[in-house]
Protein 1
Amino acid sequence: MNIRITGTGSALPGRILTNAELETLVDTSDEWITTRTGIKERRIAGEGEYTSTFAAEAGRNALAMAGVDPRELDLIILSTVTPDFPFPSTACIVQDMLGAVNATAFDISAACSGFIYGLSVAEKYLRSGSAKKILIIGSEVLSRIVNWKDRNTCVLFGDGAGAVVLEASEGNHQLCSTHTFSNGAHWNLLYQPGSGSRHPATDSRTIDGEMLHITMEGNEVFKHAVRAMEEASLKALEANGLVADDISLLIPHQANRRIIDATAKRLGIEADRQYTNLHRYGNTSSASIPIALDEANRLNVIKPGGKVLLVAFGGGFAYGSALITW
Ligand code: UT7
């Protein structure tokens, strides 16, 4: 049985926040942000825009490309660290927005690697015969949990959503493998301290202590990210009997230009075999890979039959890879 990617979609806020505008908010510069991260601008959600609204739009776009009616979906898996509400799942809200009345829907929490985790769970549903058509979405409104007074983090993140439709069938765009990894020893290097059961949002100390924002030891995360993304990539190559030269396109999580460069260098994948868009969107966590995949698909960047390697790393630490034959 083959697993086919039949549709991709994405959705982004219209509002663009440039590095020049950030210079007016915190003590930073376009030069610092560009050289340290590669980011030039990011998209920011406006009033009335939530994780679910971007997720539903990305999902509709992917379903339209696949020619799948929402009522045909068996499963919706949504990855996010910025759900509309702590509960119910944002996936259930999106199910309602799409009219996917026959689908089971749930959220996945794996931070920036959530889309790869979603692919991996979907793969198992399809291989076991438990589902035939699945919508996987990564959607984030990180601008609502970023500390806009902290230059260490506020320059990095952006909002948006990406989605794919996976189906059990013959044909092109085959999902060949997924691999997921977790290393919980470092959970506190990248997390949101407040709003859960340890530091509830209902406790004034949580708000006064500015605990509702993303907290990150950037340097440490950077080192782990490069090693882990190499490990996950090599696992995907090995599982498919491939070497780095066989890869047509590397689509890494879009966190930092230098992380991508270091990972690609270790693997031996040159710039012309990488797809990046972080200069336009910043780090959109679990949305970054499906947004990039949708762009690459619609721009016909991926040659038929080409091998596409997806690789992600993020909070948890959770990381993983997926290999697609296009
Ligand atoms: O999504 C997956 C998880 N996240 C990541 O993968 C992010 C991983 N980490 C990174 O991308 C990088 O570590 C950062 C981009 C966050 C930071 O780059 P860095 O080269 O590791 O810089 P640093 O943290 O070592 O900071 C260097 C200096 C510091 O100044 P001092 O202490 O040397 O005087 C910072 O205060 O840069 C300063 N700095 C800034 N300066 C201007 C930090 N942020 C800024 C800023 N503008 N926005």
Note: Residues 28, 32-33, 36-37, 112, 151-152, 155, 190, 218-219, 221-222, 225, 255-256, 259, 283, 313-314 surround oxa(dethia)-CoA (CB under 6 Å).
Protein 2
Amino acid sequence: MNCWREWGEIMDYIARINKLRRMMEDGGMEGLIITRPENRFYLSGFTGEDGILFISLDKLYLVTDSRYVEQAAAESPGWQVVEVAGDYLKALPDLGGGQGKVGFESRHITYDLYHKLAQHLEGRLKPCVSMVEELRKVKDEEELALIRKAVEIGDAAYRDILPFISIGVTEREIAVELERLLKVKGCSRIAFDTIAVSGIRASLPHGKPSSKRLEAGDMLTLDFGGVYEGYAGDTTRTIAIGEAPAYLRNVYQRVLEAQQAAIRAVRAGVPCREVDGAARDYLKAHGLDKYFAHSTGHGLGLQVHEEPAVGARSEMILQENMVITIEPGVYITGWGGVRIEDVVIVKETGCEIVTKAEKALVIL
Ligand code: ZN
Ligand code: ZN
């Protein structure tokens, strides 16, 4: 059970729900059904695995089964917990009440559930996309504190994994140890499968750790993050094993400078594509842009990848207290790869760099 939320903190939920209700009214809705787990948590603080939120213009219902009733009451004090045996939907007609439109998360519902809802709320269902996600793009102070903590744990785990890394250790051993460190230091789970790829395998931007052993002259890319109180960390560092050849060190320096150029471009009011362009243009000036196939970054919060995308085609404008990653990389098949990733918080005149782990090339 999650006991960290005190009564005073319910204020954040009230602010979120008030904003959501304004959006519902603008959309002509008198009810909204929330099925996406991250959105359910964002609005209610409920961490159980099963449950549906039903939000009307003046009431809040958390519908769940007997396994979670006590937990829901403790975690979500502003919500009326409705226990439903077996079929959640039996409670919905009572909750629905009036005749107005009822929104649902059209990208986060099974076909089966949609059909059942349609039977109960015939003609009243209105598909909605990204309503809660729209609110989640800009973080409040409580969220920022949790993200800083998740990233800080990542920094500490990175510091402690370095002595473990040496010639002969396998990628998988390193990934497992890094995940253990994230948990020992306070994360409830890993945010995504840890990436640990070395040598020519580092040309796989999202490669899986293998039984390959580290060799002298390898570059090792580690991409990792843990979840703290629901919020994800996400850090990438590339390390040289033994003496790094000059060309590897050169590419590392270029990627680092591209990453710093993108960080300098971050501030409220700037389109995301300009941040991407800052990294891409720098790599282009050094003939490396063709090896940089992914976006420069992504939003981070309850999910590892959320809005805003920070890519070449992203027209979204950065706003104060959005949280994004900056992670350019260079990947050359048969040669290897380098990626460096920090988490930053967008500010009015620049950004706060949350990740503190060393960025000068570490040679082990
Ligand atoms: Zn990452
Ligand atoms: Zn990332």
Note: Residues 234, 298, 325, 327, 341 surround zinc ion (ligand 2) (CB under 6 Å).
